[in-house]
Amino acid sequence: MSRISPTRCIGPDPSGRRQMSASDVVIVVVITVLACVLAAFGMPPSVILSLLGGAGFVAVGVLTALRAGSGLGRLMVRVVQASLPA
Length: 86
What we know:
Elements: H1 22-40, H2 45-67, H3 71-83
């Protein structure tokens, strides 16, 4: 009869986790630094959270466009391109 070791983890295999890519890390760092700078200048937390929500939305769109090339990603790229001055 085999005996199960008490140190064995019951749950997902930790070696199966996907590590963050460099672009993910850059986005997280930029958004965190932005929040710290805004807080240092005395901006109210509600405004900071609104800005971070918008930044997160843009980040998801950019990463979707770069990775999957899906219709949503292409649409977001076109919206951003259309909003830039010529």
